[in-house]
Fold each of these.
Amino acid sequence: MPLADANGLAVSTGSRAAVGHLDRAGALFARFRADPMAELDAALAEAPDCAMAQLMRAGLLLCATEEGLEAEAAGSVAAAREARTNERERAHIVAASAWLGRDFDRAREGYGAIVAAWPRDLFALQVAHQLDFFLGRRETLRDRPAAALAAWREGEPGFGHIPVMQAFGLEECGGNAAAEEAGRRAVSLDPRDAWAIHAVAHVMEMQGRAEEGVRWLAAREADWAPGNLLACHNWWHRALFHLDRGEVAEALALYDRGVRPGRAGGPQPPPALELVDASAMLWRLRLIGVDAGAARWAEVSDAWAATLAGPQSCYAFNDVHGIMAHLGAGRREAATRSLAALERAASAPASAGGNAALARDIGLPLGRALVAFDRGAQGEAAALLAPLPPIAHRFGGSHAQRDVIALTLAESLLRAGEVGAARAMAEARRAAKPDSLFARRLAADTATAAGVTD
């Protein structure tokens, strides 16, 4: 009789110790705590032929969205193919193989099919959730966890992670009140659930509740900061709240403490997910005229140069943030190389889907706009950016991350002398976030440029 994991799913191994390591790895990943990979390596030390350990390794590596990790992920998938497998594990092989082929849509469908057939496969649910996030599929980001809940009972291990995923999806779909309620409840059940803390912070960001957001994250720092894979991102959110309050010094201090590549205790080399946050924060500072310093820009540019070393775009969202860092560091040749990688990805046939679609629809025009902005061609930048906000969700990431598109557009319009359009954007932002000093400052800048006195 095959052994079963903590969620009652059959695992093709005879080692109970290996299954225990799988369970612990899954629990760590669900809470974004380090180090699930160490648990999977321990499982393979107990049972080298454990296919599910290899497949979980592959899923974790692929979630990093880094080309440099694809070979290792491919090795794990190949090892799983050679091992004894059951139907669910073979479905994991198919889904991971699609991701390795950079067919993100088919990978998303594959992991989603696993969740539909085995709704207690929490690992597959989380990977599908990440793919929904990477591809900007807001509705399934919200609805997939809700559908899986029917197979779980409240209070059993693992249950609390599912409504947390739903909470984040609710926020991305504009259901802020329900998202906050679900997120706060999840935090009450597990105060160390960094994804739940993060979901509530997102609601506060969307509503311009910057002062409350600072308090929320500061009060729970001990729960999300140490040994957490989401710590850098929550530091970024906290710095973003300070920036929204006009507290530039505080934002920079938090950047140096928790986001900056090379910070004490930070991973080396930094993962792409962290470099995205570093680039986005420095670019926002640049938009409001703050000189973050050559050293900060160079660190991020150097890290991206190592991460985006291949000629082909792996994930367009990363390439765009690499372009931001290279431009901020004054390295236009490096930005041009990243732009060329996006162009190659975008030139793939329309049927290719996945990253080709991300690059073609959003990544390439956005990358070109950033380059135009950097060289002072503000009218060109604005023209490239203007069509993007209504479809930006298709680029992946969150509302908070994609907001840099609208911010860059508003600044481009203002600098290009298209003050009416810039003022309309500023007033819309102030209406959505009435307590946001950042929004009010943008409105004031456009009013000054238009010669309007409020």
Amino acid sequence: MPTPDDSSTGDRIKEHRRRARLSQRELSERIPYSYSLLNQVECGARVASAAFTAAVAAALGIDTALLAGPRHVTDTQHGRLAALVRPIRESLALYDLAPGDRTPARPVAELVLDADRLCQEVRATHLRKAARALPGVMGDLTLAAATAPTTETWRALASTYRTAHDIAVKLGFPDLAVVALDRMGWAAGRASDPCLAAIRQYRRALGHAEAEQGLGRRLVEAGQALVADQTSREGLAVAGQLHLGASAVAARAGDSGAVEQHIAAARELADRVGGEAPEVHWLSFGQMNVTLHEMGAAITMRRYDDALRQARAVKLLPATLTSRRSRYLVDRALVEMETGHLDASLQHLVAARRTAPEQTRYHPRTRETVTGLLHTSRRTSESLVGMATWIGL
């Protein structure tokens, strides 16, 4: 019997469209995408983006999971990644078990530094390194919080849960990411830290923004309420990041007016924060962050000419985090491909791979761009073939 991964997203869209007794033309009229794109997705010439899949699912009145395509990695890659995150999954499952007679092996101050170092490793895109070290730090902090709870310990534990979420998202394990955010909320509540709790709502909003626009907006608003009275640099940076999250949610809903409002609000807060703020929960909130989110919103709304203009105006700072630099290069590659600059697109993909191979390899936008290049290039270069093989196409 076929499994959900035995067919492509395009095949499943075609199947459910036919069940609904709709022609391609009729379905295209119900979604904010062209008939041509729908036709290309169904025949396998284009990769269905998450936003496209969510829009089709909404038009057909079915759950997005029924249409979602196979993972962006091969079966072998998936098996290795599943083994890598299994200890993290187990640590998250054991979060509330009594520690027994054990005592923390290391001082809390050292564990706090370890939790922050893991955040740094993820921002440097050392995903495997961070994933291997995370369960041990998480377990020691869980024990410390249970035996001698302090605000500092709970904050550090919440930070490890956030790291678990970030690793899960980047490696393609959305179910694990949801669990990690639940644990983060649990620890942030015990730390009585409104900024951590607000960051959790920001992450939740991004996770729901594709299919549940209203829910994503409500989650951002819940986060904003948590820091509404905060006037510290930390509070202002978190509030600004929430506006950037709101702009992403609005972009996925096609609400350009709301995008502009939230980007403007974020810019104002970035001015008040003064410069980039990498020390605030590794958000690196600042004007550069706002600019990259504005470009990302244009991409989401398929305003590729605007996105290209914005992308070419970006001058990344030397101190830009590796994860952010890589994401910019992947986004730039997609925009160059969509506007017909195929050589430039491939060059930016190669640069992204060189900058952050782990993050680039598993990013769904990398696969979308490589697939587009394969279908639109007049000749397939060795570099493009190598890139396609590397990501598992």
Amino acid sequence: MPAADPMLLVSDHVDGSLYALTVPDGTVTGRLTGRHLSEHAGFLALPGGRVACVDDRRGELLVLDPFGGELVELAVPVAVPAEHLACDPSGRRLAVTTGLGKSTEPWSDLLTVVDLATEEVSRVRTRTGEPGVTVPGGGDPLVVLRHREPGALAVHRFADLLAAPPGCPPAAPRALLPLPDDGHGDAYAPGSGHVFAATGEGVHRARREGDGLTAEAVIPWGSPARGWYLRLDTRRRALWSTLRGGAPDPLRWPEWTNQAWRHDLETGRTHLTELGPGLVFRLALARRHAAFTRIHPDGDELVLLDADAPDGGIHRLPLPAMDGAPRRGGTPWEGVQRRAVAASPGSGWIAVTRGGHGEVHVVDAETGCEAARLRLDTPLHHGGHVMLRARGDGAEGDPVGR
């Protein structure tokens, strides 16, 4: 059976609601209203079962304790709209980048750094765009921004950014490492100190040396497709992604191909597993499984892979259709409902939302069966966003917001 004690955070970023629920029974232990969380920056696991996220409307970084009495442990001001969120391996020092928000062109160059221990906050100007971010440790923490067009990894010292004077001054990087212009997807492995960035060429890898980075060999995708999302597996020392192939035209999304990509960081071996056509993006990692949601006009499903033997078992669980789901002839992004998926590396439960219906499917990954269906009093517009945490699950070993 799945491990006891997990808690589920569910956000409807449009409606402005955030719930904390027990799993699998769905008892609501806490709720926030008027909180419009950044779905793109996502949830960031912190030590002690805590979670960080950004309220895009109020311009606040929130530290949540789903296992405590008061859900909000701390709130500090940050620049918004939040694009990406990351922390150093200690969980003390955080960085928040800004993105497009509802604009169609890059316009914000603000970066916020926060020291949770002292509650110091500093804002600086870097470069407009949609930068990814990691906060490597191994000494005084760095802040590494992954830029596009032109692509680069820009290296800053966290202490320099925190000590910047008021007024959002420009902050020049201490070092630059070139990247292709199409970077999208970031990860950091605290054990080895490697920073990873997904591009069309593959996964670019760099290790920290002093206050800079040294490039290492690119990890190939091993497929004509590419990954747009990158995630560190804290239990298996591996990287995961979903490779999307086919015509780039979003109107042809039902024809997109999807493969689960797993790269073992110790052996250097890469595994590819066919997931099926349609829309597959983010993934979640449970104790023994990797979970993917696949949306398609012919039917949606939750796909579970054996994470310890990715060439082995695969289980598919059909999911009920969503009103307002992406349809043939339209794009899978604008004005449609989607699904979010969550899991904890210390548990066997999987949570999948049903956008527009206010429902969360709770699945036992060990049996591949739905164990409960939680119903909330908010629609979960666009699928909402979810995070599952169990006590001592080690999820903070992946210090990038998801």
Amino acid sequence: MSRDEVDRAIVGLVAVYDRISAAMFVMDAHPALVLLRGGGLRGRTAEVAKEVLAAVEVLWSQFAALGAQLDRAKAVRAERSRPGESELRVLTSVLRHPIVGLSASGMVLDTLAAGTPASWQTVPGLADDLETVAAEVVHALSEVEAASGRIAALYAQPSATLAKASADAANLGGDALRGSDVDGLARKLGDAQAEALGDPIGASGPPPALVSEIDALAGRIAGLAELRTAYPEKLRILTIAVGEVAEAEAGARKVCDLALTKIANAGLPPVPDAVGGLRAHLAQLGQLQREGRWLRLADELSIVERSVSQAMEQAAHLYEAADGLLQRRTELRGRLDAYRARAGRMGLVEHQELAAKHRAAQDLLYTSPCDLPAATRAVVAYQRYLNQLTERGNP
């Protein structure tokens, strides 16, 4: 090599060495390297760790050899401003000839005692290989870091949900956490995350069943917090509703009493009296609220709401049943009057047998208590006989 060629080669190697130094610094300070060196890895991440750590060891060996050869070349070149034949021969050997012995794994063999090289490499070739492999290792480390970040992000939401639920429950006090196992869920979540971080490249997010448990707990505690705020309004609405039950039961009782008086064998059940129990239950709710027994309050509140709804429904059904009996009697009376008017238009009012059937139906309908089945049969009998007379054309 000429002097100019030597100088250009050294300058080029210094530039490459500086780039490799920067890449080696990034690699050595990379947080993913700590993870890969920590052990306890599994799956695809364990495979990557084995490959990367082996490559890092080779890189440091080759990097040290590159630096030593570059220092040697710079030292020989610095001996004279115009190197002679002997210096140029040494520099040519360093800068062009395959003088770096490598093992089968790529480790530099500095002495014969270290073993017989499996291959030899030139200093520029070593520099090119180093730059390529260092970039590949940094890229692999970045992929591991990205995978770890993805796992952390996937676990961040349920962790935050669980932490908020725990804080909200502590703020509620009372029995907000009774029956739940925040600590147990936290342990499960931590174990699952540690398991995932053992193989972040191949792992997925938190187990769906665990996330569902955490969401259910958070939802329940959020519901209890909402209950604490909404309780006064809920109590006011329930109190009004219980008053409406009292009115509905009073109305049902009134119409039932009338039906029992007016209709024989009405078959009506006793009028329920749910108001007293409901009002006692409301008082119990107040005690639970004052004691901060939120879980019990939520359960009892649901029971009262269902009981109010059922009491209203029962009162309405009973009212409809009793009123239906009275309406049936009224309807039969109207039908009998309509048939009587028809008989009058046909000139059959004085018909002896028809008049007897009318009296029988009328007596049943206007006697208290009224035998509705018998009255119904009597009205139908009157109607049929009237139809028969009409079809025969009797005067």
